[in-house]
Amino acid sequence: ERKQLNRLRREPSRTIDGVDIRLYANAESRDDVAEAHALGAAGIGLYRTEFLFLQRNEVPDEDEQFRTYRDVVLGMTGRTVTIRTLDLGADKADRTGLVLRDEPNPALGLRGVRLSLARPGLLDDQLRALLRASGYGPLRILVPMISSREEIRAVRTRMNRLAAELRAEGHEIADHIPLGAMIEVPAAAIALPGFIADLDFLSIGTNDLVQYVLAVDRNNEALGEMYSPLHPAVVRLIRDVIRLAQRKGKPVAVCGEIAGDARFVPMLLAMGLTELSLHPVTLLEVRRTIRACDLQALKARAPSLLKARGRLEIERWMAAAAPDLA
Ligand code: PEP
Ligand code: MG
C-alpha cells in the first residue's frame, strides 16, 4: 500500500477526465518544506509562521525571519511559496509577551491580522522580511483572520510603503508580490463581493470557518460531532466563495484540514475547486483519490450536494460520489 502510494510521487494530480488539480503543501518547518518538495507539491499553499514565535522568550527580528522565509523559498526551487503573516492569539501559548493574556474569548479576540495591525512594529518586521525573501523566488503573502476590506487595505498600504523603502535601500524585491486573504471568518465570506477586488488570491481556512459559522469551538471535544464541515451552511458558503473567486479570475484554494482528508476531495472538486493545500503526510493519498475522480461526473452531482438539507444527506452524497480506488 505504502509502496503503491510512493509510486505517485512523480505522477500528476490529474482527474480521470484530464483536469490537473494543484496540490500545495501546508508547512511549518524546514522538514515539511523538504517533504513537500520530494512529494511533488505544486508549491507551499500555507506556511504557518507562528512556530517561529513559539517556545521562546523574544520575538524573532527581521533578519532571523528573513533567513527563515528565504530558505522556504529556496527549498521549493521556483515553485510558488505562500507565507502567512502571524496568526498568534491567546489560543497559541507564546512567551514573547505579544499576546494578550486572559482574554475571555480568545477565538474572538486579538488574534491574526488584528494582532498584527495592533502592533505595527511587529507587522513591519515581518513584511520587510517577507519582501526581502521575495527576491529569491516566487512568494505570496497570505493574511489570516481577515474580516473586512479595511484590514487587507491596511496591510497592502504597509506592504507597498515598505517595498519602496527596501528598494531604496538597495534590496532586490520581486516586482509583484501577490497579497491574499484567508477566508475563515464568516463576515469575509459573506461580504466577499465587496472586497474581492482588493485580493490577489484567496485561501479558505475551513478549520476556523467551520468553528465560526457553527459557533462550535474547534478544540472542544465535548461538542463532538457538532464540529463538522458537513453542515449545509458550511458547504454553501464554501461553494459561494469558490464560485465568486473563479468568476473574478482569482486563484482560490482550501487549506483547512478537510483538504488533506481524501473523503472530502470529491465534494470539493464537485464545487469547482482546483487548488488544495494540505499537510504533506496526506498528499499522496489525496493525489490517488483525485486520479480516481471523474470531474465531469462530480460536477453533474453538484446540484444535489447543494440541495442537501442536513449532514446525513451530505454523508449519503459523499458515499455515492466516492471514487473506486481499486
Ligand atoms: C484554518 O483555519 O482552516 C487554517 C488553515 O488555519 P489554522 O488551522 O492555522 O487556524
Ligand atoms: Mg485559521
From TrEMBL:
<keyword id="KW-0460">Magnesium</keyword>
<keyword id="KW-0808">Transferase</keyword>
<keyword id="KW-0762">Sugar transport</keyword>
<keyword id="KW-0175">Coiled coil</keyword>
<comment type="similarity">
    <text>Belongs to the PEP-utilizing enzyme family.</text>
</comment>
<comment type="function">
    <text>General (non sugar-specific) component of the phosphoenolpyruvate-dependent sugar phosphotransferase system (sugar PTS). This major carbohydrate active-transport system catalyzes the phosphorylation of incoming sugar substrates concomitantly with their translocation across the cell membrane. Enzyme I transfers the phosphoryl group from phosphoenolpyruvate (PEP) to the phosphoryl carrier protein (HPr).</text>
</comment>
<keyword id="KW-0963">Cytoplasm</keyword>
<keyword id="KW-0479">Metal-binding</keyword>
<protein>
    <recommendedName>
        <fullName>Phosphoenolpyruvate-protein phosphotransferase</fullName>
        <ecNumber>2.7.3.9</ecNumber>
    </recommendedName>
</protein>
<keyword id="KW-0598">Phosphotransferase system</keyword>
<dbReference type="GO" id="GO:0008965">
    <property type="term" value="F:phosphoenolpyruvate-protein phosphotransferase activity"/>
</dbReference>
<keyword id="KW-0418">Kinase</keyword>
<keyword id="KW-0813">Transport</keyword>
<feature type="domain" description="PEP-utilising enzyme C-terminal">
    <location>
        <begin position="3"/>
        <end position="293"/>
    </location>
</feature>
